[in-house]
Design goal:
With 206 residues, the protein is mainly alpha-helical. The chain is built from nine helices and no strands.
Length: 206
């Protein structure tokens, strides 16, 4: 490799690094504004201003809001992944397993409440949010189904168990219980009480 070639290679590498840094700065600015204002109330111009770049530069990296939102989602999701099933799958007792899964999700919502509040608020206004939340709903569906299966209940009780677990895992349920002043332990205790009472609700009456 000649000196000229090495110099050109260095310039290209430095340029690529600079572009990557600019892109990252834009994404971080967008995430911060989305969490503060909500996606529906964060114009591209505000993102450019916070990132310290011209709008032309921003659009060079992200040609539209869909591309911007996709990058933000990937960035935020990598930092705040949904609770992993490994936290509860190894627990044999189904009630204790459900309690561990609920605690993990309740703690997760508590730590990420700012973003979830604005995302759920703006979902009807910003279409790119909708497939993201659909994936979250699928995750919660799968968790609820897995937890319910471990109880090995049958019939109506099994169906009600699945519905109760799915309701308990929802962000909206956490938000409602949080508004009632319950901490994670109290939330889990309350839902565990719901689950414990289900079999009696389906016993034949004398």
């Amino acid at each position: 490799m000649t000196k000229r070639t090495k110099k050109r290679s260095y310039r290209l590498s430095a340029r690529a690094e600079s572009q990557a840094e600019t892109r990252q700065r834009i994404v971080e600015a967008a995430v911060a504004l989305h969490e503060k204002l909500g996606p529906a109330h964060t114009p591209m111009s505000a993102i450019a201003e916070r990132a310290g770049v011209q709008r032309l530069t921003l659009y060079r990296h992200f040609p539209d809001e869909a591309a911007m939102f996709a990058a933000c989602t990937a960035h935020w999701g990598a930092r705040h992944p949904l609770p992993d099933a490994g936290l509860w799958d190894g627990i044999k007792d189904p009630a204790a397993r459900a309690a561990a899964a609920l605690a993990a999700h309740f703690d997760y919502y508590a730590g990420t409440r700012g973003m979830w509040a604005v995302v759920y608020r703006d979902v009807g206004l910003v279409k790119p949010i909708q497939p993201v939340l659909a994936e979250v709903e699928e995750h919660l569906d799968a968790v609820a189904a897995s937890l319910a299966a471990a109880f090995r209940w049958k019939g109506a009780a099994a169906r009600q168990l699945g519905v109760t677990l799915r309701h308990a895992l929802a962000y909206s349920t956490w938000r409602s219980l949080e508004a009632g002043g319950l901490d994670t332990a109290a939330k889990v205790s309350l839902v565990s009480g719901w689950l414990a009472g289900l079999p009696a609700a389906f016993k034949p009456r004398s």
